[in-house]
Amino acid sequence: MKKEKQKKIGLLFLSLAIILVSLVSSITYYYVVHIPHEKAVDRFKIQKNKVIDQTKELKKTISEAEKLISQSKDKKPFKTETLSDLKESVERYSPIVNDVPSTPKKTNDIKKETLKLKKWPNSEKQNSDLKGKITSYSNSLKQTDQITNPTKEFVINKLNQVDSITETQAATEDNDTNGKLNKPGGYTNAIVFSSSLVTEVVEGSDLIDKGTSAGGTIEVYANENDAKKRNNYLSSFDSLGFLNPGSHTVLGTLVIRTASSLTATQQKQLEQNITTRFLDVE
Q1: What is the spatial distance between Cα 28 and Cα 34, in angstroms, rounded to a whole number?
Q2: With a threshold of 0.85, does the pTM exceed it?
Q3: Where are the beta strands (DSSP E) in 171-240?
Q4: Facing residues of 165 across strands?
Q5: Which of 21, 126, 189, 269 could form a disulfide with 152 if both were Cys (CB 3.0 to 4.6 A apart)?
Q6: Mean pLDDT in runs of 10 for the chain (282 residues)?
Q7: Using CA atoms, how far apart are residues 10 and 216, in angstroms rounded to an integer?
Q8: Beta bridge partners of 170
Q9: Where do runs of H (alpha helix) occur along the chain?
């Protein structure tokens, strides 16, 4: 009887010891493992939310850029490098918004990822740079549009913005001295302009009659191929004295011509001034 009682007491103490050990283990786990883990998770989430918040604008900008790129197949920017620059920047900046990590399982891994998040790239700078690339590409597309078979009103408006150009006149089918207006392979518009750089007297009843000798002419073609053919044709007269057509160069579907009486420097400068105006994005 006595031994049985002692056995029961032993079992009781053993049970109490097991309960005590379990309690101590639970308390130890809670304060040593669980609480540090939860704190690490909270810090990670706070830092992650900061990164997500600060990259929100960059994410929108990347989406805008990706949309432009997806629509670029049949479009031709004036400067082809603007598209490649845009693609390169999207590829470089996408990880900033796409590679934000999810919460790791282990506490030490969580702490490591939190430190990485604290050093996450400043997306404001990247966002500003990418917006600039979008603007450059978009403007380059507009430049192509502006020099691709523009209307006579557009051409006249641009020529009127050049300081040395004093007057303009658009050719009609009735007064076109070359007889090429609206003909197959011919120009769709031809605008003759006078320039203060031309000091000699040019005979003619009006600008169309005076022609390129008064300052120059902008010949507008339906496509680049027609413009290049015309430019090549003019080149065959470059060294023929009084038949010299003056300077001529292709810009998009335009042939920009300047008077032969101008010096080479004047011709080049006038061409440049006209080109600058045509490429100014409105």
Answers
A1: 9
A2: no
A3: 189-195, 215-220
A4: 195
A5: 189
A6: 62 63 61 71 85 91 96 93 97 92 86 86 91 97 97 97 97 94 96 96 94 97 97 86 79 97 95 97 86
A7: 117
A8: 191
A9: 2-29, 35-54, 56-70, 81-98, 107-118, 123-146, 152-159, 207-210, 224-235, 264-279
